[in-house]
Amino acid sequence: MQREITITVDEGTYEELNRVVGPANISQFIASLIRPHLISVEMESAYQRMAEDESRESEALEWAEATIGDTPDDAR
Questions:
Q1: What's residue 74's pLDDT?
Q2: What is the DSSP string of 35-47?
Q3: What share of the chain is helix, strand, coil (3-state, %, to 5)?
Q4: Where are the domains of the chain?
Q5: Residue 30: which of 56, 57, 8 has the closest Cα?
Q6: Chain-wide mean pLDDT for the chain?
């Protein structure tokens, strides 16, 4: 589902958008620039919620401690 928003840019910016990406592609172009920033905020929030889950964190620590001996001790 698509939603419509209105943004305001100066005339020069609008003309360059039309010239560089074409009038039919402005929405997709702007969305492609914005989306990575939104995903990073979403991901940060998800990691925060995971960290707050004490039982999950306890299980993850237990798993990590149990597998620490599974790798060879290579000389460095």
A1: 63
A2: HHHHHHHHHHHHH
A3: 75, 0, 25
A4: 11-68
A5: 8
A6: 87
